[in-house]
């Protein structure tokens, strides 16, 4: 009998009413805002700063992933279940999935196997409408900008050539990257170049994730940079009096969403920025809510540790004052084969020689976080095709660096297969003495901050700035935004900015093509290589394998 699909496992789960889950973490039933029987929003009043200080935050990241990913969310969910199995009061605080990857190639972000958050179908589709609210708030500002261009009596005299604000939608659609709006005559607006970003890469998403409370949200929305007037003065969303209306659209989206794991443990899902082109972690509000309600909070940072974890530490921790008590780096044997040079189609075949080469990618990530005074625990996400020889080699090499590597069997065993990892994570939180120290001074020159990340985190020999990047840098300095942390937009597939340089590349430079900045969210975005904010669909999108029957039963969702 074949192993059931993620969807089959989720659909056959014994799901509890969400009020029962809330009761486990002392949330009053009357405080829940229900979205059906299995989802609810938590009011912000449950944030308790004193409890936040006492809770232990566990950060889960990964090596540079293969195209299918290494199961970081699955490990995070399984670790939450494992911690509860060994008697700890733990909650998983994760991101919401984006529809783009769900219907593209990567699939959803609800975990997998017997380590999932449920209701899986709802979570992977429209969930509680947060992404829709973010789209509407973003696109309201876009509409207000074009309306201001059209309305000469109420005009800010914005130069349409300088407008950087784009519309968004939560779907992969390469045809919308560059468009022209305002065609069809004077009644339809001012013709100008425009484009779409995907919703998780929008600044409104980033702002939702960086906001401490509703007032902070409004202030950050007002700080969104739009462009310049004809006489070269900067224009912000507050100049259009847009921030209050945008905040109204986000009045419910700002509240964290409560769901459950397959084992009936609480989980909070909130926000969903990508980690290769945004900051890649859930909201500060959700993390603080989780820390107010439980002793251990398991959270993840997207893609490889060179992206998500670095941004979590230098952006989210910078603003929220967090310090992870423990860190987990997820790896797989198949990823070691991939980074060791195994060819496509061979990743599932035992290949000891490739693993001995690919281990260098994992070692680099371990070394990076030891520099930051965060001693990680390595989770080897277990697959049936792993050989004992390969697993033992990875454990031995980690041991040489003073780091424990533990087999994670959450996919087939749920929390039971994570008890050993959970125990070591507790040991790390209590005894490792982790004390995160930033890699760079946030007040340093922008170029120096980027250089530090490129050399120390990626292993680059230096940084090359294009003419466009140098011009963009002048704007950043002129606007007084140079003291913000940096959010590198880089491929997740390599430590370098070239996805073909797998393993642990050396002898390369990082190329900064251009800069963007999120004045409201509070970070600068160096864009490396060919990165873009609107993905495209693959030749055979996942949507082709999906179906729904006359009774509303869904098939093929992952």
CATH class of the largest domain: Alpha Beta
- By CATH, the architecture of the largest domain is named 3-Layer(aba) Sandwich
Structural class: alpha/beta
Radius of gyration, CA atoms, in whole angstroms: 23 Å
- CATH superfamily (homologous) name of the largest domain: P-loop containing nucleotide triphosphate hydrolases
Domain module count: 3
Give the percentage of residues in beta strands.
Answer: 15-25%
Predict the CATH topology of the largest domain: Rossmann fold
Mean pLDDT reading: 95
Low-pLDDT segments: none
| Apparent shape | globular
Report how far the terminal alpha carbons are from each other.
20 Å
- Helix percent reads 25-40%
* Major beta sheet summary: 12 strands, mixed
How many individual β-strands? Answer: 23
- How many helices? 19
Fold and architecture overview:
The protein is globular and about 70 Å long. The chain is of the alpha/beta class. It contains 19 helices and 23 strands.
Brief synopsis:
The protein is an alpha/beta fold.
List the helices and strands and how they pair.
Layout: H1 6-11, H2 18-24, E1 33-34, E2 40-41, H3 49-54, E3 56-62, H4 72-85, E4 90-94, H5 99-103, E5 111-112, E6 115-118, H6 120-124, H7 130-150, E7 167-169, E8 179-181, E9 192-194, E10 196-198, H8 203-210, H9 214-222, E11 225-228, E12 234-236, H10 243-249, E13 257-261, E14 266-269, H11 284-293, E15 296-300, H12 305-320, E16 326-331, H13 333-339, H14 352-371, E17 376-381, H15 388-400, E18 405-408, H16 410-413, H17 419-431, H18 446-458, E19 462-465, H19 467-478, E20 509-518, E21 523-528, E22 547-548, E23 554-555
Parallel strand pairs: 3-15, 3-16, 4-14, 4-15, 7-10, 16-17, 17-18, 19-20
Antiparallel strand pairs: 1-2, 2-13, 5-6, 6-13, 8-9, 11-12, 13-14, 20-21, 22-23
Helix pairs in contact: 4-17, 7-8, 7-10, 9-10, 13-14, 14-15
């Amino acid at each position: 009998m074949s192993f059931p699909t993620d969807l089959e496992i989720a659909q056959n789960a014994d799901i509890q009413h969400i009020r029962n889950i809330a009761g486990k973490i002392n949330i009053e039933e009357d405080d829940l805002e229900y979205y059906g029987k299995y989802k609810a929003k938590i009011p912000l009043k449950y944030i308790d700063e004193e409890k936040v200080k006492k809770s232990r935050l566990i950060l889960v990241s990964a090596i540079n992933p293969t195209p299918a990913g290494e199961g970081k969310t699955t490990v995070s969910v399984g670790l939450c279940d494992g911690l509860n199995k060994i008697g700890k009061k733990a909650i998983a605080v994760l991101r919401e999935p984006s529809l783009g990857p769900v219907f593209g190639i990567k699939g959803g972000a609800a975990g997998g196997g017997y380590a999932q958050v449920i209701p899986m179908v709802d979570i992977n589709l429209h969930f509680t409408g947060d992404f829709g609210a973010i789209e509407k708030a973003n696109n309201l500002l876009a509409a207000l900008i074009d309306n201001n261009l059209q309305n000469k009596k109420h005009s800010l005299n914005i130069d349409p050539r300088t407008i950087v604000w784009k519309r968004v939608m939560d779907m992969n659609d390469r045809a919308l990257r560059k468009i022209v709006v305002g065609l069809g005559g004077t009644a339809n607006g001012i013709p100008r170049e425009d484009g779409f970003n995907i919703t998780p890469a929008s600044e409104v998403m980033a702002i939702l994730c960086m906001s401490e409370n509703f007032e902070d949200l409004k202030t950050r929305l007002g700080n969104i940079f739009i462009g310049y007037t004809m006489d070269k003065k900067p224009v912000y969303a507050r100049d259009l009096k847009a921030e209050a209306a945008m905040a109204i659209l986000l009045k419910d989206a700002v509240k964290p969403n409560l769901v459950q794991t397959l084992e009936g443990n609480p989980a909070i899902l909130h926000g969903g920025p990508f980690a290769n082109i945004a900051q890649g972690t859930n909201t500060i509000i959700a993390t603080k809510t989780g820390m107010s309600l439980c002793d251990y909070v398991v959270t993840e940072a997207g893609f490889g540790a060179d992206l998500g974890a670095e941004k979590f530490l230098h952006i989210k921790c910078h603003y929220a004052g967090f310090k992870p008590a423990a860190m987990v780096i997820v790896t797989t044997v198949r990823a070691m084969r991939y980074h060791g040079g195994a060819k496509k189609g061979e990743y599932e075949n035992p290949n000891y020689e490739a693993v001995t080469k690919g281990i260098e990618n994992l070692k680099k990530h371990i070394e990076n976080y030891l520099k930051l005074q965060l001693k990680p625990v390595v989770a080897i996400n277990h697959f049936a095709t792993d050989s004992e020889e390969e697993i033992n080699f990875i454990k031995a090499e980690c041991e040489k660096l003073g780091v424990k590597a533990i087999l994670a069997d959450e996919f087939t065993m749920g929390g039971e297969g994570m008890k050993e990892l959970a125990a070591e994570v507790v040991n790390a939180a209590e005894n490792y003495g982790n004390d995160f120290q930033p890699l760079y001074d946030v007040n340093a020159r922008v170029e120096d901050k980027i250089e530090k990340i490129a050399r120390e985190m990626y292993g680059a020999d230096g940084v090359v700035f294009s003419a466009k990047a140098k011009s963009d840098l002048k704007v950043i300095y002129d606007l007084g935004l140079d003291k913000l942390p940096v959010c590198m937009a880089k491929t997740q597939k390599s430590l370098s900015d070239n996805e073909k340089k797998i393993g642990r590349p050396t002898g390369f430079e990082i190329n900064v093509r251009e800069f963007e900045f999120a004045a409201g969210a509070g970070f600068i975005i160096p864009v490396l290589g060919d990165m873009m904010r609107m993905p495209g669909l693959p030749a055979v999108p996942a949507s082709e394998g999906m179906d729904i029957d006359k009774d509303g039963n869904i098939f093929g969702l992952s």
